[in-house]
Specification:
The chain is built from 5 helices and 6 strands. By secondary structure, the protein is an alpha/beta fold. It has one domain: Alpha-Beta Complex (Ribosomal Protein L13p, Chain: A). A 4-stranded parallel beta sheet has the order 5-2-1-6, covered by helices on one side. The longest helix has 13 residues. The termini are far apart.
């Protein structure tokens, strides 16, 4: 029996729509990362971009458990001495709710060129509206 390796020209990419309303952050992020990598396909190849495009709506309505709303912090550094700043999850949800899901999924992807390419295939919107109706995304049912 011969081993089959998929080539870049044979990869078929679909568009999926995910509604994040009431979903738990970590569980949603793992499902999205898996689809972005292409692990749901029988032709999964670790070193190729085999995954699909994902459109996430209602990012502002994501759910977190426990007291993460006040305790979980997001850090950034300007590059200058004393340039470390941090924001709580509650503050990030008020200003840029899309970044919560993007940050969680980005941490679950490979930390190399492939991971940077994969994260560009995810489009996150805080509300119900999105500009990707022309791609006719299919509803992704998450466990």
């Amino acid at each position: 029996m011969k081993t089959y390796n998929v080539t870049a020209s044979e990869i078929q990419k679909d568009w999926w729509l995910v509604n994040a309303d009431g979903k738990t952050l970590g569980r949603l992020a793992t499902e999205i990362a898996s689809v972005l990598r292409g692990k749901h396909k029988p032709t999964f190849t670790p070193h190729l971009d085999n995954g699909d495009f994902i459109v996430v709506v209602n990012a502002a309505k994501i759910r977190v458990t426990g007291n993460k709303e006040e305790v979980k912090r997001y850090y950034s550094h300007s590059g200058y001495p004393g340039g470390l700043s941090s924001k709580t999850l509650k503050k990030v949800r008020e200003t840029f709710p899309e970044r919560i899901i993007t940050h969680a999924v980005k941490g679950m992807l490979p930390h190399n060129r492939l991971g940077r390419q994969l994260i560009k295939k995810m489009k996150v919107y805080s509300g119900e509206e999105h500009p990707h109706e022309a791609q006719q995304p299919k509803e992704l049912k998450l466990g």
